[in-house]
Amino acid sequence: MMQKSISRGRPDERKRKTRFQRLWEESETLSGENAALEIALDALALRIGSEVLPAQQDMGNAIRQVVDRQLDLNERKTLLQWQRKELRQWTDAHVSDLLAMGLLDDRLRDRLALREAVALGIELDPQSKLSAADQLERHFRDAMRVRDQPVDEVAGDRDDVLEQDFDGENHRGGEDEDGWSDSDSVEELFRRMYDEAGQDTAPDHVNPGRPVAIDDSVFKRLFRQTAAALHPDKEHDAQLQVEKHELMSQLLKARKERDLISLLRLHERHAVADSSLSSADEKRLEGVLLQSIDEQHNRMDDIIRKSPMHYLAFSQFYDQQPSVVELNIASHLQQIDRKKHTMLDFVDEVRTLKRLKELLRERYDAYQSNWL
Q1: Higher pLDDT, 334 or 285
Q2: Of 347, 315, 303, 301, which is closest to residue 52 (Cα–Cα)?
Q3: What share of the chain in percent tops pLDDT 90?
Q4: How far apart are CA 131 and CA 110, in angstroms?
Q5: Span of 161-165, 190-194, 243-247 with lowest mean pLDDT
Q6: Rounded mean pLDDT of 7-26?
Q7: Is the pTM of this model over 0.70?
């Protein structure tokens, strides 16, 4: 979360400021930061939709070609056990990437389901109206229901189900459980990532509780002093009349909604010098400012989590320096482009089981060497 110094003056100047003044500056700083952040993330979210997601989808299409090729070669019966295991892990890593982009479509889910069924010795009905993925899902769901039932409820007519070769610990876990029920929509996938990240990383909001009570006489006095300075009828310049009319509308809205912070902001910016707050006024208003600061922090979180795109924009690309934002986007697009070409190179190069086995050996040796 962004933090800025409240005062940039000399040390002796900072000491002369009252607690109210320091709180007021902090509240105003946070308010300005939030306004700038909202504008920046709105624009950046649009750029992600127009620049990043199309490039990412192109990369995803290349990954799908790799998965199809690997699933084709996985059907060859001459693969050794370690080779098949290595290939499975490799393919599953690509599937995880597709899940993260919302590109695991029904056709590919069915192919993966068929691979699982063969590996687990589960017979799927080719004449069924259910897809292969749905059949496998139903098989796991039924088996889990049987496993979780008390023994006396399972006995008898469910014995035939219990005799199936099923180990609940080895099925429907981890990414498979998440992936096979996912939509193939990019936006929906980002929404899920956003929700999961929010559960893990969202800072706890400060509970503002009830609004801080303030003496009504103080509120009325602040309103009268500000209204006297902003009344448009006292202004002879036509342009200033228009500006003061708008400010007066804001002031009336703040009075109607009992919005003390907006009233204070207008008072501090426009009231005349002889209507400045007294020490007693400042003391009464400190609690209001503390509450405002809490609300500004919560407001910042709301802006960041306005949508999945906004969260992605803030977490991966945003910076207060526009040049850094451009660099972040360019770097991300370069990474996507490199990965896409790596996938296409695999599809072009790996056409035979012999070449696949060579690559599986390289992956296996590299993994083993990391443990030495």
Answers
A1: 334
A2: 315
A3: 48
A4: 7
A5: 161-165
A6: 68
A7: no
* Count of C-beta atoms within a 10 Å radius of residue 112: 22
Which residues have CB under 8 Å from 299's CB, separation 6+? 34
The single-letter code of the amino acid at 242 is V
**Of 286, 285, 289, 287, nearest in space to 297 by CA:** 289
DSSP 305: T
- Contact in structure between 171 and 186 (CB atoms under 8 Å): no
- 314 touches 304 (CB < 8 A): yes
Conformational region of residue 4, where left means phi above 0, alpha means psi within -120 to 50, and beta covers everything else: beta
φ/ψ of 34, rounded to 5, equals -65, -40
Residue 136 confidence (pLDDT): 92
276/282 Cα distance (integer angstroms): 10
pLDDT at 209 over 70: no
pLDDT number for residue 272 = 75
Q: What is the DSSP string of 100-139?
A: HHT---HHHHHHHHHHHHHHHTPPP-TT-SS-HHHHHHHH
Judged by average pLDDT, the poorest of 176-190, 202-216, 266-280 is: 176-190
pLDDT > 70 fraction of the chain, expressed in percent and rounded: 76
Looking up tokens 């933090």 gives: 3
> How many beta carbons lie within 10 A of that of residue 297, not counting itself?
16
Q: Say which residue the tokens 């193939």 belong to.
A: 184
Q: Could you tell me which of 54, 103, 2 has the C-alpha nearest to residue 332? A: 54
pLDDT confidence tier of residue 175, bands split at 50, 70 and 90 = very low
Q: Is there a contact between 248 and 227 (Cβ–Cβ < 8 Å)?
A: yes
Report how far residue 8's alpha carbon sits from residue 208's, in angstroms, rounded to the nearest whole number. Answer: 29
Kindly report which listed range (24-33, 58-67, 96-105, 171-180) carries the lowest average pLDDT score: 171-180
Q: How far apart are the first and last CA of the chain?
A: 41
Q: Tell me how far apart the alpha carbons of residues 278 and 248 are, in angstroms, rounded to a whole number.
A: 24
The number of residues making up the chain comes to 372
Q: Where are the alpha helices (DSSP H) in 75-105?
A: 81-101
CB neighbour burial string for 70-96, b if at least 16 within 10 angstroms, e if fewer: bbebbeeeebeeebeebbeebbbebbe
